[in-house]
Amino acid sequence: MDWETVIGLEIHAQLSTKSKIFSGSSTAYGAAPNAQANLVDLGYPGVLPVLNGEAVRMAVSFGLAVNAAIAPRSVFARKNYFYPDLPKGYQISQYELPVVGKGSLDIVLEDGTKKRIGITRAHLEEDAGKSLHEGLAGASAIDLNRAGTPLVEIVSEPDMRSAKEAVAYMKKVHTLVRYLGICDGNMQEGSFRCDANVSVRPKGSDQFGTRAEIKNLNSFRFVEKAINYEVARQIDVLEGGGKVVQETRLYDPDKGETRSMRSKEEANDYRYFPDPDLLPLEIDAAFLETVRATLPELPDAKATRFVAQYGLSEYDAGVLTASRELAAYYEDVVARLGGEPKLAANWVNGDLAAFLNRENLEIDSSRVGAAQLAGLVARIADGTISGKIAKDVFEAMWASGREADAIIEEKGLRQITDTGAIERAIDEVMAKNPGQLAEYRAGKEKLFGFFVGQTMKATQGKANPAQLNELLKKKLAGP
Amino acid sequence: MSAAPPHPRTLAGMAGGLAKREFSSVELTRHLLGRLEAAQPQLNAMISITGEGALAAAALADGAFASGKAGPLTGLPIVHKDIFCTAGVRTTCGSRMLDNFVSPYDATVVAKLKAAGTVMLGKSNMDEFAMGSSNETSFYGPVRNPWNPAMVPGGSSGGSAAVVASRLAPAATATDTGGSIRQPAALTGVTGLKPTYGRVSRYGMIAFASSLDQAGVIAATAEDCAMMLGAMAGFDPRDSTSVDAPVPDYVAALAAPAKGLRIGLVKEFFDTGLDAENERQLRAAFAVYEKLGVTLVDVSLPNIGLSVPTYYVVAPAECSSNLARFDGVRFGHRCDNPKDLLDLYKRSRGEGFGAEVKRRIMTGTYVLSAGYYDAYYLKAQRVRQLISADFAQAFEHVDVLAGPTSPTPAFALGAKTADPITMYLNDIYTIGANLAGVPALSVPCGFVNGLPVGLQLVGPHFSEAKLLAAAHAFQLETDWHARVPAAWL
Amino acid sequence: MSLKRSDVENIAHLARLSLREDEVAGYVETLGNILDMVGQLDRAATGGIEPMAHPLRGLSQRLRADVVTEADAHALYQQNAPRVQAGLYIVPKVIE
């Protein structure tokens, strides 16, 4: 039987506020255990929550960015369950009335087509603490520094049909929250993570299959692997005549498997009810306009502009706008060049991207800054060096941090454009290779490449390629 | 018992004596500490008596008088209900769960009264987590009624009421979720005010039912309540449900004459269950008001009869969630040798909470659980809306509502412990004000069989000044509030 | 409304309360009576009535400025903790 995969994601993005959602504790990562867990975060008797306005602004900005309806009135509810990393015995979240309603965003599939993914809702809630298990026989240790960190939980429609689509969607949301400056997107630290609801159904069916929820996926790679594993597992179960059980599963990256979570085995009864310690959150038109006014240019709009303004392909524009910082870098290079947007795009998406990737660096930590790259591209554009030589110059710039011009001068890499000099080199090559010359002239035209190579070698690669071609053709043709 | 006090018995009287330097705060404090200690075996009104801290605070207060920096409450000894967190002082909430709990911080109410210069004598006994109407659910044993030690003082603020009734302290903080200030005030013959929801900060007051809980005061007179409320009330940025409204001068407002007031007699309160002798005392009180030029009007609160069932859905639901934090991990009782996490939770909570608290947690857990939420919780919230609307409608016609505080005078210890519902029905007249969030107070209005009974006055939101003035006018005409049990003269 | 013993046991489990054997029967009865009593709510006509979550009508949530106001005080806060080690709260092993 042919199966169709159905995936919906619940993405948790930690909001990059300075203080927690309901208390004045710091949200900075990496503090000593419980150093940032204060009375409210610890759920001490008598304490009360007060909502952080910045968290609200951030959630609303996300809603506006995905064209969602912002609820004029939303309500915080308590989700009741016992767990050591949940100090109050309930999580303050939004249940029936979330701050962000239905919206959507577009992803680009591998074949270049666009697909719209529905966003069901996004709501504000508080993060839980962490349980540590290592080095303690029969015990766990609880660090509540993370408890109370603001989260926006972004719930998608079950619109994705493959692990690749799920990853594309997650990356798109990742790009968006970082553009908005509402989440640092750091997946290793858990600032951006997701739960994946995965089910399969016979192709063509309009019923959903029973789904499993894979918890706490904190890398794009894990999302893809976990979903692919889970899809295969469910198909195996179904084809073996079994039934998929609705359950919570955990992905084990070491084994590359998902497994059932024992702690969540029993049916949950969260007993949601409106939190009486908090009043309804009301967002009026003025607040909405203030947030709207501070929204940056968003990735899709920026990509469209790059195509129109710089004449880039949609693909190049898409890559360049994948992060706000990369797009800013690119525009900086172009501005310094005063033109050459396509050449600049090729460099940013080509060699620069490859070098960054090789060292696993973000654009902000590039060893070649925008001004330096512009200096290099300018030398290609004005014919001082060839594109091929430029690659060597770039590598030297990356290694030394020096300017392109200094390297070109020092190594004498300036391109030879003097016709006389190129002709002299051609004459030498022809004199050294009489046999090949004869063969060429007898009709073996593919030896042309041999002569290009030899002449380039004779000029240490510095001959202007176009001139070289032209002159060589003339000379080889004979007097 | 130690000698009769060398000073007045009311907060206002003591304030006058301190201001005139007739006695020092240290003298006053030392005297009252002695009385409190001596009374413990008979009344069991206190959970902690904090003599050292009290004397230090009193010395500071005397310093303030010496340097001319004293305010109206400087040097006045008071008691805090043990539901308020007090920094560095054990805060038990009447529960084994918090027997070893020392709060690292002060509740806003405590901090405000401290800043006003009051001297904390100690923490008063109470029903466990404020769940009870007789003070018999306390882990520290029941409080006795100063008028008759065989009787309960009411609850949950039974300790606060008893210390004021026996004049062991001139005033005590208290809390009221369904009548926990007014009912014990009535049963011990003192004045108790539950302010408007949001008038006094809930920060640092250990939560029972967050949408109903409100801090207030018990004192001998309306005037003393006014003095205390002025210092306790006001906006608190730490409490999202605290209302940012100016605090009037409640003492100055006492001068407002009762003449011209329209007082509504709640028809339903006289229809069922009210003790006949109790009703006679109330009618006499209404006659006093008529003499003062008050117009009495019959009014109806058609849905008030549903206030007890509404309350016993809403309050347990909120309590089941509020008390989930007591899990044996970060503070409070932890069972010995838990065999696993589930065992840690269940035994720590099972051992730490008493029977009534467990009953309410289970009731609340049930009414919120899947399949029952709509039928119980949501239904109760809708009925709450109806009850609240009844009050709003009544206040379109009258300034204040009046009726009994409690159906009967104080009952004997153990009389109602077997049947929780009989106990719950004690709050039949008081719960409505909590559901609607409106202020209400109880003033002593007579005796039945030697036991005090109370008159309840209820006003619209933020009408505390009017309620206190109405009670003050009554107390200028009567002396019920000035009666002290013979044993405690 | 009559509750079964198993109902009470389930509620107690959900609320994480251990009950002694001799307590259960009492709760079966008293919880049943309480549910009967609150069952009176059925007689109220509440069609079209908004549920009332708290008594502050017309007020909305106040927003706090995003400012860090709290300093590290874990040593003080952990004085009440039954079991801590190296600043961490210790519990029996959490099984995921």
Report on the architecture of this protein.
The complex is a heterotrimer of chains A (479), B (489) and C (96). In chain A, 41% of the residues lie in helices and 19% in strands. Chain A is of the alpha+beta class and 479 residues long. In chain A, the strands form 4 sheets. In chain A, strands 6-7-10-1-11-12-13-14 form an 8-stranded mixed sheet. The relative contact order of chain A is 0.09. Chain B is built from 17 helices and 11 strands. An 8-stranded mixed sheet of chain B has the order 4-6-5-10-11-9-7-8, sandwiched between helices. In chain B, strands 1-3-2 form a 3-stranded mixed sheet, sandwiched between helices. In chain B, helix 2 (25-43) runs antiparallel to helix 3, helix 5 runs parallel beside helix 6 (182-188) and helix 11 packs across helix 14. The longest helix of chain B is centred in the last third of the chain and has 22 residues, at 373-394. Chain C has 96 residues and is of the alpha+beta class. Chain C has a domain at 5-36. Helices cover 33% and strands 9% of the residues of chain C. Chain C has helices at residues 5-14, 21-38, 74-77, and strands at residues 63-64, 84-85, 88-92. A two-stranded antiparallel ribbon of chain C has the order 2-3. In chain C, helix 1 (5-14) packs across helix 2 (21-38). The two termini of chain C are 38 Å apart. At the B-C interface, helix 11, helix 12, helix 13, helix 14 and helix 15 of B face helix 1, helix 2 and strand 3 of C.
Task: Summarize it.
The complex is a heterotrimer of chains A (479), B (489) and C (96). Chain B is of the alpha/beta class and 489 residues long. Chain B has helices at residues 11-19, 25-43, 51-66, 108-115, 158-165, 182-188, 222-232, 250-253, 267-271, 276-291, 307-322, 341-352, 355-368, 373-394, 420-424, 431-436, 464-477, and strands at 46-49, 77-81, 119-124, 171-176, 191-194, 214-219, 262-266, 295-299, 400-404, 440-448, 451-458.
